[in-house]
Amino acid sequence: MKIQSIRGVKDILPGEIEKWHKVEAAARRVFSPYGFKEIRLPIFESTHLFKRSIGETTDIVEKEMYTFTDRGGEEITLRPEGTASVVRSYVQHKMHGQNQLVKLYYMGPMFRYERPQAGRFRQFYQIGAEAMGSASPTVDAEVMTMLITLFNELGLNNVELQINSLGCPECRPPYRELLKDAIRKHLDELCSNCTQRYERNPLRVLDCKVDRDREIALGLPRISDHLCQACRDNFAAVQAALAGMNTPFTVNNQLVRGLDYYTRTTFEVVGKEGLGSQNAICGGGRYDSLVEEFEGPPTPCFGFAVGVERLIATLPESTWQDIVRRPDIFAVLLGDAAQQQGHTVIQKLRAQGWYVELDYEGASMKSQMRKANREESRFALIIGDNEIQTQQFVLKNMGNGEQVTLDAGQCVEQIRKHLDVPKPE
What we know:
This protein has helices at about 15-30, 45-55, 60-65, 85-90, 135-155, 170-185, 190-195, 205, 210-220, 230-245, 290-295, 310-315, 335-350, 365-375, 385-390, 410-420, and strands spanning about 35-40, 45, 65-70, 75-80, 100-110, 125-130, 160-165, 250, 265-270, 280-285, 300-305, 330-335, 355-360, 380-385, 390-395, 405. It has about 425 residues and is of the alpha+beta class. Strands 1-5-6-11-10-9-7-8 form an 8-stranded mixed sheet. Belongs to the class-II aminoacyl-tRNA synthetase family. It catalyses: tRNA(His) + L-histidine + ATP = L-histidyl-tRNA(His) + AMP + diphosphate + H(+). It holds the Pfam family tRNA-synt_His.
């Protein structure tokens, strides 16, 4: 039987993986000046971690988690998101004892059992960041600004930052009851998912993607009209901080998040065109009680997660110009003596960081030069019997056909002068 990859997962092949590399490198480059440091998290955790943090009534826990019992009888889940694991690590390793704002970011695969479709996979990749230890509205604004900076650096400018406040433990419970009363009048019109969970998590009705439910949601009470004064002041301060950082935003009163742990500021970055109704590129927000729920000290936190596949699909084609590295030099080696001396030179060149390719089959010079052209190599270094005898190697510019002669003993230093010249645009 021919074995293929499981439905909903995919191989990321050369030619495509370079896009991941570019996005990840940009994230590291942007996050570092903000003081964020990378954390590597386990692929699987105790199932209880995600049930406790994400919420029993969420789609992730109810329908999507990859859960199994290991040989020791423990219930294990492949991580469906990263925040819960970061919080677990934060508490386990007592990072809160550092008495400072802890800023962490992560990259890697997540797993959810859902119907594979365009931009959605059962194994997918996320980049996330968490700022842990401060309730300051400036932290909210700074993290969102950092994210928009990342998108702009990748060439993604046609996006909109949408923000809302979900209130706090003081003002959300009465709003929740008000919302339930309003939803009850429309139960016979809502989809089955909303009718099943409105008692336990009525805010999810506001997040439903069914068209009719979205229309109904527009007429339901808005949490922005029922915030306590402290939450109103906090949300105003977040907006003022974003304005001070010159980060454009809009307030979306219908915006909620699918995970139970969010409080106060929540946000999404959405594409302005080309993504259809599922136009959210990423989202996140404040979660001030999750660390405490994991038996850590009271720790206000703010974070986000970006789906890498969706981000890559959204970025303009101009982002990917020249992402596949072509050889700097194709070494054309002709004869045994050339092979021996040529490999010494090749290793020295590679030690300088240059990409050197060669033919391994002993083909003719004509065949090797054709291969150098196919590989789009910048230069060809030609070493044959004559070059070995005279100790004069030939370096050919594959772009304009110009050739120069190099002294064998100084060829690496002489090649450097040519390779250090920027490639033509």
